[in-house]
User: Which sequence fits this backbone?
């Protein structure tokens, strides 16, 4: 098993699907990380509205807000995409902000929230799953029933309910105050609702590991429960967690988009792919790209994460190959 | 000889989901003297492994008591028992599952020393590897890189790390090739002679038992049916079940006698009277009515049979 992680990562990257997914994910992350670069190069501020602003198209100054194409030229629409590198490559939104820059900045938030809540979710799920699987008995009974109860509530309904309560008010727990626009709120909520999803396979794995001979051997040597959990059971859970991580992250990203679309996640003026889709909702007939581009970004990221998760699972569990 | 471990009326029953009870071990009393090797012998499923684990506190007895050097260790909490763990160690049957596949051998061997805060880990590992006949190059390797015999040597080394007074070896050779079995048996004998560690040797292989053990306890359906000096019992069995076990060993000088009829009864629903009467070729009406208690038939020799063979 020496260097087994390196070997598995190499195996995943040499698979066609694994390499594709990793490359796609890496380019999305890289693009989002370079958001400030795009903004600085083009001299734009994607977080303040600029309805009266102008930009340069084909060497001419043009207004960001253009009269509509209808016969009476009633109302204004933001400028459309010109698909060329430079400012407003994907056009502007109804506030006159650069859509491309907002998609890149929004991606940072979307990826950050998805990754953070997936990490948080897996840690919580591992604690619950390990305790339930290892200790068994009434601890297992109580924890499993709580998970069942959480899982019985539709995930989005649950997330929306929690968000309605917390977003806009913030959370005050004694001396700790979390502001209404703090990203920790959506991160915490999304992590919480997917805990049952991740905790069940981890509990099953912990249960089978706790019956392994080496656990009995450790107990016979006089190891305490915590020592066994930490040194014998937890290392055996890492493959399961590695497989779950991208899958949970994909779910978290979708949940984040849904919450943000409903104004229950990331709060303006900050952006995420979900909020940009919401911005684009009113422009769907005239400037569909405002909604389509972040939507496409979500689709591609979730696809890459799922393909990566499946490739990882196939590599770690040869018996399950081809599922 | 001083008594090291003593079990009094030890039972281990498992409650099954249907309200039934599986009587894995029933009313077993035995002693292990310091430095002695006691063999527990019986068919698979007779409760010998359960008994071995319960003896050293890897399982809480349903009733009865276990004493180590005269102090009661049954019924102690996990924490209180931890103080006794270094004194009694177990060598498990299946060496492929008793090593954590994600930890190196060196890490695994050091673990018992770390648990009990001992120092001089590296020297101790070196000494033991030499004793079990392995070089220190094994330390950085992982369990799956070893053969079954090598792993069993490491298993023994780990059990001896803390310098125990009692070793419970649960079928240490049954998962090995015959040639490797002999090596492991010889190793265990040498270690026992050089270290003076007492040993409870669980096995169904009478040839191995003859080489390894000083005394033998034959189990049937969770109870001890015969106990005594190993050579005396194997030369002249007093219980019909012991004789049947001996008859089942193929020998070149005689044709194999007919095997016992029927299957081992279920420990969930053991027969009335003598547990063996359903298969005993010598059973009398009394055997179905009345359970024979273990009684002394000779010096250091007990048997639970109404009509012993000697």
Assistant:
């Amino acid at each position: 098993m020496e260097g087994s992680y390196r070997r598995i990562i190499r195996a995943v990257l040499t698979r066609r699907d694994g390499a594709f997914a990793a490359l796609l994910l890496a380019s999305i992350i890289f693009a989002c990380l370079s958001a400030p670069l795009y903004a600085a190069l083009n001299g734009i501020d994607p977080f303040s509205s600029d309805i009266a602003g102008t930009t340069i198209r084909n060497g001419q100054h043009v207004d960001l807000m253009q009269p509509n194409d209808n016969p009476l030229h009633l109302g204004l629409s933001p400028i459309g995409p010109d698909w060329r590198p430079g400012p407003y490559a994907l056009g502007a939104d109804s506030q006159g902000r650069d859509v491309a820059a907002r998609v890149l900045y929004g991606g940072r938030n979307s990826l950050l929230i998805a990754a953070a809540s997936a990490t948080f979710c897996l840690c919580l799920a591992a604690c619950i799953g390990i305790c339930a699987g290892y200790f068994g008995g009434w601890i297992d009974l109580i924890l499993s029933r709580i998970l069942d109860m959480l899982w019985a509530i539709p995930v989005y309904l649950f997330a929306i309910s929690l968000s309605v309560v917390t977003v806009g008010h913030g959370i005050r727990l004694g001396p700790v105050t979390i502001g209404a626009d703090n990203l920790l709120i959506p991160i915490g909520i999304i992590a919480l609702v997917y805990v049952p999803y991740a905790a069940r396979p981890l509990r099953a794995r912990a249960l089978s590991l706790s019956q392994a001979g080496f656990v009995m051997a450790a107990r016979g040597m006089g190891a305490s429960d915590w020592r066994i959990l930490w040194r014998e059971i937890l290392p055996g859970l890492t493959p399961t967690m590695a497989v779950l991580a991208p899958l949970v992250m994909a779910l978290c990203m979708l949940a984040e988009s849904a919450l943000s679309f409903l104004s229950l996640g990331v709060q303006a003026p900050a952006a995420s792919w979900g909020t940009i889709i919401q911005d684009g909702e009113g422009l769907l007939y005239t400037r569909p790209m405002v909604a389509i581009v972040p939507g496409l970004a979500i689709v591609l990221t979730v696809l890459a994460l799922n393909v990566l998760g499946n490739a990882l699972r196939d590599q770690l569990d040869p018996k399950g190959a081809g599922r | 000889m001083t008594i090291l471990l003593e079990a009094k009326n030890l039972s281990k029953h498992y409650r099954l989901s249907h309200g039934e009870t599986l009587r894995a071990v029933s009313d077993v009393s035995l002693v292990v003297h310091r430095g002695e090797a006691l063999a527990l012998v019986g068919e698979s499923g007779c409760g010998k492994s359960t008994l071995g684990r319960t003896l050293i506190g890897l399982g809480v007895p349903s009733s009865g008591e276990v004493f180590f050097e005269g102090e009661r260790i049954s019924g102690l909490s996990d924490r209180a028992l931890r103080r006794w763990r270094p004194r009694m160690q177990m060598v498990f049957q299946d060496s492929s599952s008793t090593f954590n596949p994600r930890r190196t051998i060196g890490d695994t061997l050091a673990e018992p020393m770390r648990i009990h805060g001992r120092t001089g880990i590296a020297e101790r590992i070196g000494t033991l590897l030499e004793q079990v006949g392995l070089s220190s190059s094994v330390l950085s390797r992982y369990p799956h890189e070893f053969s079954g015999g090598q792993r069993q040597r490491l298993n023994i080394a780990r059990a001896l790390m803390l310098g125990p007074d009692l070793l419970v070896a649960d079928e240490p050779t049954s998962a090995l090739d015959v040639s490797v079995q002999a090596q492991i048996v010889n190793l265990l004998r040498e270690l026992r002679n050089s270290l003076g560690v007492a040993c409870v040797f669980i096995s169904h292989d009478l040839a191995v038992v003859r080489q390894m053990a000083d005394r033998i306890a034959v189990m049937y359906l969770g109870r001890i049916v015969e106990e005594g000096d190993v050579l005396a019992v194997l030369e002249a069995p007093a219980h019909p079940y012991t004789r049947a076990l001996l008859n089942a060993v193929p020998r070149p000088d005689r044709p194999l006698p007919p095997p016992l009829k029927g299957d081992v009864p279920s420990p969930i629903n053991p027969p009335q009277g003598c547990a063996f009467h359903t298969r005993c070729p010598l059973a009398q009406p009394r055997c179905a009515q009345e359970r024979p208690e273990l009684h002394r038939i000779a010096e250091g020799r007990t048997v639970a049979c109404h009509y012993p063979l000697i």
The CA atoms of residues 52 and 209 of chain A lie 64 Å apart. Chain A has twelve helices and six strands. The mean pLDDT of chain A is 86. The beta strands of chain A are 54-57, 60-63, 65-67, 76-78, 171-173, 176-178.
